[in-house]
Amino acid sequence: MSAQPSPNTPPPAEASGATLTDAEVLKVAALARLSLTAAQVAAAREQLAGVMALMDRVRGVDLASVAPWSTTREVATGPKGAHERHPPTPSPMWRPLTPQDLMQLAPTPHEATTRPPFILVPKVVGDGAGA
Amino acid sequence: MSTQLRASARQIAREVRAGTRRAVDVVREALVSAKECQARCNAFTQLFEEKALAHAAIVDRNVASGGGGGDLALAGVPIAIKDNICLGPDLLAAGDGLGYGGQTTCASAMLRDYRSPFTATSAQRAIAAGAIVIGKTNMDEFGMGSSTERSIFGATRNPHDTTRVAGGSSGGSAAAVAFGCCALALGSDTGGSVRQPASFCGVVGVKPTYGRVSRWGLVAYASSLDQVGVLAKDVHDAALCLSVISGHDPLDATSADRPDTNFTQDLDAAIPPPRLGVPRQALAAPGLHACVRDAFEQAIAHCRSAGATIVDIDLPLLDAAVAAYYIVAPAEASSNLARYDGVRYGHRAAHPASLLDLYTASRSQGFGEEVQRRILLGTHVLRAGFADAYYQTASKLRTRLRADFDAAFLRCDAVMTPTAPGPAFALGAKTSDPLAMYLEDVFTVPANLAGLPAMSLRMGMVTDAMQGVGGGGNASLPVGLQILCPAFAETTMLRLATWVAGAGVGVSVPPDESEHPSSKP
Question: Is the ipTM of this complex over 0.90?
Answer without folding.
Answer: no
